[in-house]
Amino acid sequence: MTGVITAGVDGTEESLAALAWAAREAVRRDLALRVVHAWRFQSDAAAEVADREAQEEWVRAAVRDAVTDVSGRHPGLRVTGDIVEGEPAETLVAAGAEAELLVLGSRGHGAVVGFLLGSVGQQVIAEARRPVVLVRAGDKASAEVAGHEIVVGQHGSPEDSGPALRFAFETAAARGASVRAVRAWTLPPVFSYSPASLKLLDDAGGLEPYEKKALAEALAPWRERFPDVPVVEHVEIGSAGQVLLSVSGRAQLVVVGRRARRTGVGARIGSVAHGVLHHADCPVAVVPHE
After folding, report:
1. Which of 1, 88, 123, 279 could lock 38 by a disulfide, CB 3.0 to 4.6 Å apart?
2. Residues 6+ apart with CB under 8 A from 154
3. What digits encode the pLDDT tens for the residues 116-151?
């Protein structure tokens, strides 16, 4: 399915905030909205309703109410609701694969801003093939105002960061916002320099000019494709996560790339995405590398 934004809901305040965000984004992008509840029958004593049919009806009623509410807020928005029985992470990954993006809610990180990711959220982010946006409970539309930027991290070659840059520019174009493209760099160990890399640095005039040139080259095709989107090029020495967080105070959305890493205990997201997710005070989009 294309032309759809999918929001995962479970009746919590966090998922309702994610649904509200997804609905606004669907209106901006002229896309349909799909509301998905990943459901498993709970037969234990902790379940509020022990009967399977009663549980399923309760879930269906919650989804119907969510669809009715969002349709009332956004007349003309195409909204559907689905209940899919299965493991939550697997169900949401599959639902996200059929959409332009998947939107999920996350609890605030205690008294500190950021996201508290459970095992389901971490697995979905690590395995999703499409962008995943995390929205905290309490995130309001008032943050999506003129002057607030779409912040995106750029690293490596233009190909490495292409998916994240594309998502950031598409989002900015839909909102009439600007893009702040951030490239962080650190001083490499002197012994890592090769003759070829030293020549590249000499040709560029030094380390910082080299990084600025790399960022400009990565942005060039997206500037051409989205000429009406204002762009701020931000190059700063420091760790990527810290630099992104330092400029996120006026961000509507922070966009980071993700290359999943497989370990003996499953997929893991990179340290930059992990750090931004846990400390950003606005929604965060995690975009997988293609």
Report:
1. 88
2. 161, 164, 165, 181, 182, 183, 215, 218, 219
3. 566 677 888 989 999 999 998 777 676 677 678 999
Tell me whether residue 189 is exposed, middle or buried, using C-beta atoms within 10 angstroms of its C-beta: 0 to 12, 13 to 18, 19 or more.
Answer: exposed
- Contact criterion met (CB below 8 Å) for 42 and 69: no
User: How would CATH label the architecture of 149-288?
Assistant: 3-Layer(aba) Sandwich (3.40)
Are 4-139 and 149-288 the same fold in CATH?
yes
d(CA 109, CA 233): 30
Identity of residue 40: R
**Is the model's pLDDT at 210 over the cut of 70?**
yes
Q: What pLDDT, on a 0 to 100 scale, did the predictor assign at position 267?
A: 55
Average pLDDT, the chain: 83
Q: Give tens-digit pLDDT for 27-37.
A: 999 999 999 99
CA distance 63 to 76: 19
| Lookup result for tokens 């003759």 | 195
Give 105: exposed, middle or buried? Use CB within 10 Å, 0-12, 13-18, 19+. buried
Q: DSSP character for 282?
A: S
Residue with structure tokens 């962080």? 184
The model's confidence at residue 45, banded by pLDDT at 50, 70 and 90, is: very low
In b/e form, how buried is each residue of 151-176, taking b as 16+ CB within 10 angstroms? bbbbbeebeebbbbbbbbbbbbbebe
CATH topology of domain 4-139: Rossmann fold (3.40.50)
What gap in Å lies between CA 34 and CA 67, rounded to an integer?
9
